[in-house]
Design brief:
The complex is a heterotrimer of chains A (276), B (232) and C (234). Chain B has 232 residues and is α/β, with parallel strands linked by helices. Helix content of chain B is 37%, strand content 25%. In chain B, the strands form 2 sheets. Chain B has a 6-stranded mixed sheet, sandwiched between helices. Chain C contains 10 helices and no strands. The chains are: A alpha/beta (276), B alpha/beta (232), C mainly alpha (234). Chains B and C meet through helix 2 of B and helix 5 and helix 6 of C.
């Protein structure tokens, strides 16, 4: 019957269309975080890199924990996240080659203008957190093992509060990305720790505003790591290394500094700061 | 293929004997009509002969062998038309019988003309009237040039005019050499079309006779009361 | 309410302005779901016909299972396919994770039960009507199945369109196996999810309206096909 011949051809063409197209481009897969992608940094940065080297960078944006897990499974070539402790563990386990600091941005504590915990204008994040707990004001946590979540937990700890034990119904553990968590905070008029970049591009602010910022403890350091080709042979180590080299080079660092929203710079390049 | 020999055929379903130890030999020539009241088992007996059902016990033997490979055809009470033209429906049956493409086309037009539907051959079959569809069904069966044609109450759903058309075609098919085996509960139709009657009552073959003797002087009590009570 | 009227404005501007990003996303959505539904039909239609016409041990169980699989949660399919296609998984060496091919795989798995179960229903109904006549004419099981597939073609087209709609509307599977990569695996649904999470609700609503319009057109097409068929073929 003629149908069988036709069907075989159709399947062949379909497979060719979907798979063939990708085989041509040179690309790497970078595991990064949702907050970084949503800040718009990649949209600004990656075209510059691609123009220079012809390498396409495909970013899969997840939480930091997920991103590192994805890299452990070998599904990424490069990792670009912002939780130093988790990154160093990643390398110690043998999954990454080397960690290089790239840039930092900062977190801000955002909350309702009515400010029931009375923390507005403060410069001490730890004191602010204590006041929020004291007032049992609604506080939204990302709860998703992301860099932001880890930073939040670390701050609670530093302020002397064991949040796991001492939380009450005022503490809303949502398990969401930065954007959705901000949506939640906006709709319940709650406090939330967020990175500045996501906040600036967030459009659904409702009654929220920045209440605490500038504390050194709120700085958020980014690191970039090549996934260890020793563990996963298919990792595109040359292309991946090219990306890493560029991002810490003066070209890349300048491109990072050039990214602004509403005239405000969001990320501060610091690849030179070896201790970062 | 003929004679067709049924030896103590029984068909049981749901704990009941729908056909009960029927033995009969059906040979070429006469138009055989199976008569009987509703529930007598006429349709089941037809399907057993045609091979759509398997008997629970007993044997069905076509001249020496089993099955008389596809030189028999059946027309059902409700014509089953595929979603294609009348011509395509007639051709479909022939394709299954392995008749070549050119031959199929020619024969299809011939039989459609013989049943008076050539002018409608391009029409979607399901859009035809009930009588026309049944004529297409007959044409489809006839095109196979069967030795035996089974018909199960072919005019039960048709008005008298359409019924007459069908009866004429059946007569034509018989005249062209095909054995006719038919069921009906319409006495007038039986009288018009039959050469011999097989009278079925509650699954048993109660009487067999030539048509006129059967109607004038039925031997069995069941047949007599059936003839008396049935609306002709 | 203001957000919704804003959304209309955004959607209108995108569509009328032939926004290139929008076109890219819509084309990808349509092609991924289209390829998936074609493959799913090639698998599902014969499977449905075989189940309708055939009689084999385990047939009843298979019917029940396929009916249940129609309700497969897309996100579960996404997870399973992800684990299969991950480099750490059994099919990792093909490297198709985070590409449109992976999305096609996941959506195909989603649609096959729908096509198979619904076509089985349609063909089994037709089989009831045609069975004796087809057997009388000497059609075996395979021939009967093919004949019924062709005869029921209009109902089957409706089923295929329904499968396409289901694929185009889901987000759970393509999000996980595609990674929502800008310019590579971002489709309508994942784009909506992203814009919503960024708080850009008018844009998300605008994209949502485009998607709705697509689905509406599909359903209109399905309806029109059936109507035309009824009129012409009865």
């Amino acid at each position: 019957m003629k149908y069988k011949y036709l069907i075989k051809n159709v399947i062949f063409i379909l497979i060719l269309l979907t798979t063939g197209a990708q085989a041509q481009t040179r690309f790497i897969t970078v595991a990064s975080t949702t907050s970084t992608e949503q800040s718009g940094m990649f949209k600004h940065l990656l075209p510059i890199f691609q123009k220079k080297t012809g390498i396409e960078v495909r970013v899969v944006a997840l939480g930091t924990g997920q991103a590192l897990d994805m890299a452990r499974r070998g599904d990424a070539d490069v990792v670009f996240v912002h939780t130093k402790a988790a990154e160093e563990k990643f390398i110690a386990e043998g999954y990454g080659v080397k960690r290089l600091p790239v840039m930092y941005n900062d977190f801000v504590l955002v909350g309702p203008k009515s400010d029931p915990a009375k923390i507005a204008g403060g410069k001490d994040i730890l004191e602010a957190l204590r006041k929020v707990k004291g007032a049992t004001a609604p506080f939204v946590s990302r709860g998703d093992r992301s860099g932001t979540h880890m930073a939040e937990l670390a701050l609670w700890k530093s302020s002397g509060i064991e949040i796991e034990k001492e939380k009450g119904p005022w503490y809303r553990d949502t398990g969401q990305g930065m954007g959705p968590a901000l949506n939640s905070a906006s709709s319940m008029n709650g406090y939330i720790l967020t990175d500045r970049a996501t906040w600036i591009s967030f459009k659904n602010r409702g009654d929220l505003a920045i209440l605490v910022e500038g504390d050194q403890r709120l700085f958020n350091q980014y690191g970039v790591i090549l996934v260890n080709p020793g563990k996963h042979q298919h990792v595109k180590k040359d292309l991946g290394q090219a990306f890493i080299d560029w991002v810490v080079s003066s070209d890349g660092q300048q491109a990072i500094a050039a990214y602004k929203i509403g005239g405000e710079q969001l990320f501060f390049p610091n690849a030179n700061d070896k201790g970062a | 293929m003929l004679p067709l020999v049924l030896d103590a055929i029984s068909f049981r379903a749901g704990g009941k004997a729908i056909i009960d130890r029927v033995s009969v030999e059906i040979s070429t020539g006469p138009r055989t009509v199976i008569l009987g009241p509703n529930g007598a088992g006429k349709s089941v007996l037809m399907r057993l002969c045609h091979g759509l059902f398997e008997p629970t016990s007993g044997t069905i033997v076509w001249q020496g062998s089993n099955g008389g490979h596809r030189r028999q055809a059946m027309v059902f009470q409700r014509p089953v038309m595929l979603r294609r033209s009348a011509l395509a429906n007639v051709i479909y049956g022939m394709r299954l019988a392995g008749i070549t493409s050119r031959e199929r086309e020619l024969r299809a037009r011939d039989v459609l003309e013989a049943v008076g539907l050539l002018h409608l051959s391009g029409r979607p079959a399901r859009m035809l009237s009930g009588g026309e569809q049944q004529r297409v069904a007959l044409a489809r069966a006839w095109a196979l040039n069967p030795e035996v044609l089974f018909l199960d109450e072919p005019t039960a759903n048709l008005d008298p005019g359409a019924s007459r058309d069908i009866e004429n075609i059946i007569a034509q098919i018989h005249a062209s050499g095909t054995k006719i085996i038919m069921t009906t509960h319409n006495l007038g139709q039986a009288r018009r079309l039959a050469d011999e009657i097989l009278f079925l009552h509650q699954g048993r073959l109660v009487e067999r006779a030539a048509v006129e003797p059967f109607f004038r002087q039925p031997e069995s009590a069941e047949a007599a009361s059936f003839i008396r009570d049935e609306i002709p | 309410m203001n957000e919704i009227s804003q959304a209309f404005g955004v959607a209108g501007a995108m569509i009328l302005g032939f926004d290139s990003k929008l076109i890219e996303i819509v084309l990808l959505s349509v092609s991924v779901s289209l390829v998936a539904v074609v493959i799913a039909s090639i698998i599902g239609l014969p499977l449905g016909a075989a189940m309708a016409v055939g009689r084999f041990p385990g047939r009843q169980a298979l019917i029940v299972v396929l009916n249940a699989l129609m309700g497969l949660p897309p996100v579960v399919v996404g997870l399973v396919v992800y684990l299969l296609l991950s480099r750490a998984g059994p099919l990792g060496q093909y490297g198709i994770l985070f590409t449109p091919s992976a999305m096609v795989v996941a959506q195909t798995i989603l649609i096959v039960p729908i096509v198979a179960a619904l076509s089985r229903q349609v063909i089994e109904d037709a089989w009831q009507e045609y069975r004796e006549q087809l057997r009388s004419l000497g059609a075996g099981s395979v021939t009967s199945a093919l004949t019924l597939l062709w005869d029921a073609r209009f109902s089957l087209v409706t089923i295929v369109l329904a499968g396409f709609g289901r694929a185009a509307a889901e987000v759970g599977a393509v999000m996980i196996v595609g990674g929502n990569i800008d310019g590579v695996t971002r489709v309508m649904t994942t784009a909506i999810a992203l814009e919503t999470s960024k708080g850009d609700l008018p844009l998300a609503l605008g994209l949502g309206m485009v998607l709705l319009a697509l689905i509406l057109m599909l359903n209109a097409a399905a309806f029109w096909v059936k109507e035309a068929a009824q009129r012409r073929f009865g």
